[in-house]
Amino acid sequence: MKNRNLLYLLLALLLGALLVACSGGSTGTEGPAADEPVAEPAVEEEAAVEEEMADEEMAELPDLGGREITIAVENAYLPFNYISLATGEPAGWDYDAIGAMCELLNCTPVYVEAAWEGMIQAVADGQFDMAADGITITEDRAEIVDFSNGYINIEQRLLVRKDEDR
Which CA distances in Å does 118 have to 49, 109, 113, 146, 165? Predict the structure, then answer.
């Protein structure tokens, strides 16, 4: 049950971090061009309210006290997790997202390379706290592990030559 709650929390945080990261923001110091409209106070007030709400949500996050969280990864699923040819170091979206979550929760990610074939069962058995490997949510898998909300939808297609007429 503790692992389930931790997983839910980590995944909710991930989604929140993604929303914050995608909200953008300018780093430039230039003011608006002469022909650009200036932001109206209502828009600025709305942004301030949203920022305050985000701060309140962040304040509600638990402090895990540096606890180690074990994450199963295959390191063979670009762009999510892989070994960089340039550096020989692990890289990818999973590492970035989980690293950001652990910064917010004060936990330490410990990535363990694991074979895809046994990864889901290993999480179910408690060998890992979570797995990150672009895992598709299925009913069978949901019977033994808890899933976060989906964060990417990929549609698979078959292809044939353009001149194929069979």
Answer: 45, 20, 11, 16, 41
